[in-house]
Structure to design on (425 residues):
């Protein structure tokens, strides 16, 4: 009797699938179909994973968030056969074994793509390659792409156009794997674990706030935390630095700041901002306190050469030792001080206010964007004139400004908090 019931069940499932793939699907039918498809996955201990945020390196107004709304009539689209991608952040590392993708006009053409995964967006590995073979070209429904189980936080679909034109268009994406105690996020209440700092080094300090030495690369960053300078508080990494602290030979201003490295974390990275390839840093940041100068830099693009030095510094300006209220957002560095004759105010924000920002460099143009909670661009804050720096890297943290010659005072320090930090190349 049980065998007969199973056969009937499978026949009904097959009939449902055929019916759905040969009709126009509304949202309720789509959800019911997914529920049926997910039964076998649940029996095998595989579940649909929650996506913390989604972003892309371009769109035509059809935004990345559309791929997570459960609606096959909305989509993300971006034109180009190279360098176009959409990235899903799971929030922490999970065991991932398959991705389901529904393609716009998926029953009329094949989409060419790769699925790449990793725990850092600057260090991704290909787990599914359909750059040449493409999708089925026979359905608008979700298509399943299985691969060997891998631990990953970020899932990226890289597009290479389709069999009809250069567009990459995804209507829905679902990611599957294990989401249980067998796969916890990185252990330890450390900045390294919170931010995923595999490809960063910390320019900072050793000693006490009143007596310290500058260190270009804090050793053992994976386990490092310090209650004075660099620690986790309420799920934010805190960067604190005092007036009078030691600093590098090239600057009179003290800092507690992360510097981007190559993907394996073994050496300094230098990338070219003059080409058509977009380089991007996204960071969720909060400025809590200003030093006696009233100025703190919390993100920048730096160049190796003296000509450009700080290509751009994203910083704020307020009152001495200010801890609340409104401050000015300022753009300093080569793109304003050299190209526009001085630093530039581009808006205001409140100390303690959470901000999600993106800094990009492409075709010699630097841009700063405001992002929504999903990591999508909602406002262009600043666009530079052309600056041809070719040996660049990103930095983020607390870098005090106009503090040269200041003496230590326990009440004179800058404090910045960062909750998320990602680079894209």
């Amino acid at each position: 009797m049980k065998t007969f019931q199973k056969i009937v069940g499978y026949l009904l499932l097959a009939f449902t699938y055929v019916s759905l793939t040969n009709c126009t699907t509304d949202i309720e039918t789509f959800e019911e179909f997914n529920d049926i498809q997910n039964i076998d996955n649940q029996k095998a201990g595989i579940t649909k994973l929650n996506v913390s945020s989604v972003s892309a390196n371009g769109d035509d107004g059809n935004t990345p968030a559309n791929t997570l709304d459960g609606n096959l009539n909305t989509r993300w689209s971006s034109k180009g056969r190279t360098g176009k991608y959409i990235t899903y952040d799971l929030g922490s590392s999970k065991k991932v074994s398959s991705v389901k993708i529904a393609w716009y006009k998926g029953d009329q053409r094949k989409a060419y793509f790769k699925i790449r995964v990793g725990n850092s967006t600057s260090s991704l590995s290909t787990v599914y390659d359909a750059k040449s073979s493409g999708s089925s070209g026979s359905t608008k429904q979700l298509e399943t792409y299985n691969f060997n189980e891998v631990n990953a936080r970020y899932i990226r679909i890289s597009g290479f156009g389709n069999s009809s034109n250069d567009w990459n268009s995804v209507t829905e994406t679902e990611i599957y794997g294990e989401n249980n105690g067998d796969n916890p996020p990185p252990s330890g209440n450390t900045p390294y674990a919170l931010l995923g700092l595999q490809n960063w080094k910390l320019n900072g300090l050793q000693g006490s706030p009143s007596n310290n030495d500058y260190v270009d690369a804090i050793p053992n960053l994976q386990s490092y935390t310090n209650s004075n300078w660099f620690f986790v508080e309420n799920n934010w990494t805190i960067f604190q630095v005092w007036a009078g602290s030691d600093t590098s030979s090239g600057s009179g201003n003290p800092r507690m700041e992360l510097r981007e490295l190559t993907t394996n974390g073994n050496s300094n990275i230098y990338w070219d901002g003059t080409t058509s390839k977009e380089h991007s840093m996204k960071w969720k940041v909060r400025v809590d306190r200003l030093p006696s100068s009233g100025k703190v830099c919390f993100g920048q693009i730096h160049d190796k050469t003296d000509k450009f030095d700080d290509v751009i510094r994203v910083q704020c300006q307020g009152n001495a030792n200010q801890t609340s209220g409104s401050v000015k957002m300022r753009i300093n560095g080569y793109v304003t001080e050299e190209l526009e004759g001085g630093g530039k105010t581009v808006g205001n924000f409140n100390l303690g206010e959470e901000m999600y920002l993106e800094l990009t460099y492409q075709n010699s143009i630097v841009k700063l964007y405001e992002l929504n909670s999903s990591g999508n661009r909602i406002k262009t804050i600043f666009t530079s004139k052309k600056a041809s720096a070719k040996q660049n890297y990103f930095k983020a943290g607390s870098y005090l400004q106009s503090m040269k010659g200041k003496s230590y005072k326990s009440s004179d320090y800058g404090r910045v908090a960062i909750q998320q930090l990602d680079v894209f190349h």
DSSP finds four helices and 23 strands in the chain.
